[in-house]
Write a structure and sequence with these properties.
Structural class: mainly alpha
Helix content: over 70%
CATH superfamily of the largest domain: Tetratricopeptide repeat domain
Number of helices: 10
Radius of gyration: 28 Å
CATH topology of the largest domain: Serine Threonine Protein Phosphatase 5, Tetratricopeptide repeat
Largest sheet: none
Order of helices and strands: HHHHHHHHHH
Shape: globular
Strand content: under 5%
Length: 212
């Protein structure tokens, strides 16, 4: 049935060209377009397939509110840099990790020396690689650390990327460094210490299991 409709459409288009008085020089152009369309339909068309309404296939991803609160403490919330992080959050929630990474990279084109954006470039690039610390993500984290050598955020978020990648030992190493760089008694220092304690406990249990 679909191919019959295609044939009727072709005859109708030919009739319309005659009625409109199109010059014969244009017939070849219109005919070529119709011919390409017919080839495409013959190749990929599925006339026997029943019609069905389009359905959205968006996967929503939750962002831990505790992590957002810690980020606000570490990196601030009401800054020019943070605006790009908020945009990346919205894209991450919609499941579009590639757009989240692009949003942060767009911010870096305007603020190339922002250690905040370099840190979050590492976060979003790792997320877009299915939670793997890829060379581009690692490069972004290292650039953030070069720009802010005494700030704990680049080390903390690199450690978090390793947690998500399943490498607790690497996470422990970077979180220890992040804690050492945190001012004593700071709120974010306490949060990092709590997370580090969980990783320490996990690794201790893992070693005990291997020992048995």
């Amino acid at each position: 049935m679909g191919f019959v409709a295609l044939a009727v459409l072709g005859v109708g288009a030919f009739g319309a060209m005659v009625l409109l008085g199109l010059g014969r020089l244009l017939w070849s152009t219109v005919g070529a377009a119709l011919f390409l369309g017919a080839i495409g339909y013959a190749w990929q068309g599925r006339p026997s397939l029943e019609a069905a309404p389009a359905q959205a296939r968006t996967t929503m991803a939750e962002i831990d509110p505790d992590e957002i609160a810690l980020r606000d403490m570490l990196l601030g919330r009401y800054t020019q840099d943070a605006a790009y992080l908020v945009a990346a959050d919205a894209m991450t929630r919609s499941g579009d990790t590639a757009s989240a990474a692009r949003a942060v990279m767009g911010g870096l084109s305007r603020l190339p020396r922002s250690f905040i954006l370099w840190t979050w470039a590492g976060v979003t690039l790792a997320a877009d690689a299915k939670d793997q610390v890829t060379p581009p993500a690692l490069l972004a984290f290292r650039q953030a650390a070069r720009l802010a050598p005494e700030h704990p955020a680049p080390r903390y978020y690199l450690g978090l990327a390793y947690v998500r990648a399943g490498d607790a030992a690497e996470a422990q190493r970077y979180w220890r460094r992040a804690l050492a760089l945190s001012p004593p008694g700071s709120a974010y220092g306490r949060e990092i210490a709590a997370r580090l304690a969980l990783v320490d406990r996990f690794l201790a249990m893992q070693r005990a299991g291997i020992g048995r």
